[in-house]
Amino acid sequence: MLCAGKKSYFAAAVCITVTSVLTVSYLRLQRLSHQPKVIQEGRRCRGKIANSTITALKGNKTFIISPYFDDRESKVIRLIGIVHHKDVKQLYCWFCCQPDRKIYVSKAKIDVHSDRFGFPYGAADIVCLEPENCDPTHVSIHQSPHGNIDQLPRFEIKNRKAETFSVDFTVCISAMFGNYNNVLQFIQSMEMYKILGVQKVVIYKNNCSHLMEEVLKFYVEEGTVEIIPWPINSHLRVSSKWHFMQDGTHIGYYGQITALNDCIYRNMERSKFVVLNDADEIILPLKHANWKAMMNSLQEQNPETSVFLFENHIFPETVSSHMFNISSWNTVPGVNILQHVYREPDRKEVINPRKMIVDPRKVIQTSVHSVLRAYGNSVKVPMDVALIYHCRKALQRDLPREYLIRDTTLWRYNSSLIKNVNKVLSQTML
User: Fold this and answer.
1) Were 367 and a residue from 14, 115, 244, 253 both cysteine, which residue would form a disulfide, CB within 3.0 to 4.6 Å?
2) What is the per-residue pLDDT across 31-46, written as a single tens digit (0 to 9) for each?
3) Neighbour order of strands in the sheet with 102-107
4) Count of C-beta atoms within a 10 Å radius of residue 111
């Protein structure tokens, strides 16, 4: 080490000062190397505007989802993408500034998210300083600072203008895949979200059944659902597992982590809160009637907190109650959650995973069960305040029924839920 072996206070002080100066100088040089540089003048902005959710860069093992303006620390463009964690070493942002008709190139910082779970490809932030006095509307990405911008796809930069919140709660669901056909449970979840105060649900859709397409169409026309096409298997060999199995796949769980990060930035300027959970999960408040009352209370008690984590509890779909066996629902494929009110007990050796309600403006990077980087604190919400109702296949399959815990919290909403589900089934003619 630079300071090893120094015994006197004076020598130590000199050593610390020198180290600090060298560190500052290094960081300054690093920042200068990333400053935008003019490479062409007098050019009009050309190049084809990218319209796909996922755009592959030619021969580069890099996939761009979308760029977002981010001025929380400095004025940068943060592109949400997917990259090969070893093979992608350098990328450059190409900006075309209309007022002075100059082309700027800015060296990108490539930040592959730490939660890659062994897969060769992972979610990444590709971050570039933007040119001063430019406010670019589009950006192109290239592996070289040289070339012709006309040959590069152009990506529209989102979040350029701060907006007033149009909704309080947005739910992000990623990703819908495997010819998804759990229609009844999906409708029930959607109607429960609305009862609890959700105005928007964003779904990253890979594929689903024809019947599910009809239901999604209904909710899109209603204005509740926004569909983000997610054709990730057109670009990479995807795994339906979250961890790498040495099976030749490229990325885990249909690129779920990338979609979640995109959803946070996509809704950063339009939603007060973003909820990260799956379609078979519902955050059920125990002390409050809805999410707004719950979050007002939680924020009052935790003023420096931006991430609220809710504990997941399994309600096995194989264990049923005879209540709410509604005959008109029996022809609809999927699970009737009102009949599943027995939850598995906690296991001593296992920590229950959590899902989140976050302030999107305070999140930098997220994983599935926690945030990786954020401004502000994360708080685990006590189970007596709320829990995640997760109706799915049992995890403790050999557990006798008498060891399950009867929990009828969901039934508090049964009247409104039944009425609303019947209305949807009637309008979609299911």
Assistant:
1) 115
2) 546 788 877 676 677 7
3) 37-41, 102-107, 92-97, 138-142, 155-156
4) 17
